[in-house]
Amino acid sequence: MPLILVVNPGSTSTKVAVFRGRRPVFESVLDHDPRSLGRCGGIIDQAAYRKRALLRELKKHNMDISGMDLFAARGGLLRPLSSGVYRVNSGMLDDLRGCRYGEHASNLGAIMAWDLAAGRTRNVFIADPVVVDELSPEARLSGLPDLPRRSIFHALNQKAVARLVALKLGRRYESCRLIVAHVGGGISIGVHKGGRVVDVNNALEAEGPFTCERSGGVPAIALLQKLCDERVNSCEAKRLLLRRGGLLAHLGTNDCRTIEQRVRSGDRRSRLVFGAFVYQMAKAIGAAAAALSGRVDAVALTGNVMQCRWVRNRLSRMVRFVAPVHVVAGSIEMKALANSALDVHEGLRKAARY
To answer: What is the pLDDT of residue 119?
Structure first.
């Protein structure tokens, strides 16, 4: 069976895994020193630093990059794409390196995999990148014609979890009506209908519920007034909304385990804020149910925050009136990436061209 290297970069870490066929050999999370990343310059300049860490991890497991047959990477900020597997090519790399559609750590995935493949470039793939766009025409409109809503979300894990839940239901994914809530550093709540995510909040740009450190939707006029009064420039405004909001702004930490401990020890403020965190997610899931006219086969809760029992139990209780709740704590992205590359290798799926 072929050896598959899977690369999944995050803001301050890189997940790496090796699969032999569909069986995992190992999976690791490489935490990077933020100061070392900062010394690299921009996000794209971190590729070499992260590759060195990845190669050291392979060596630790007595593996060599030359022994890898297939390479699968998390997709970054590209033009809007249909769901599927894509073979990495020079056009994709140009868009990622130039940050044509935005700068994000996920841009590094395909870049690193391509460099590590060292000539075996027909065997480098991404799957269900964050820019998968299947929004319905109604979902795309906002209240300002020149500011349409954009589909940027945890497409890879959302699709993988949706297919897993469909399998549990004994149904094809394409025949199911599902709501999937991915709750990690960001939150995306997707409406899955007919094998497509026909509505989802833009998880990258602080749309939807507030998260561990993103503000979520806030009162627009009050925000404008604050930015004007404090003479905040656009870079600082982005940092405020995307890095200094949510649980971090309210409680001084973005660590849900720490907050859960505070709640269990009787901290009233933590309980109020954590409750609001769950409340906003539950309300968004209810709105997603309306987008399916109330006919929902299942609600799936996934992402690392679902490992927090207090959040998981409270949210499950609040939304179980919508449909049976399935919890897939953590992420199955690495397995989904490996399987996508292997499916192409075995002729089960075709790789699309970017």
So the answer is: 83
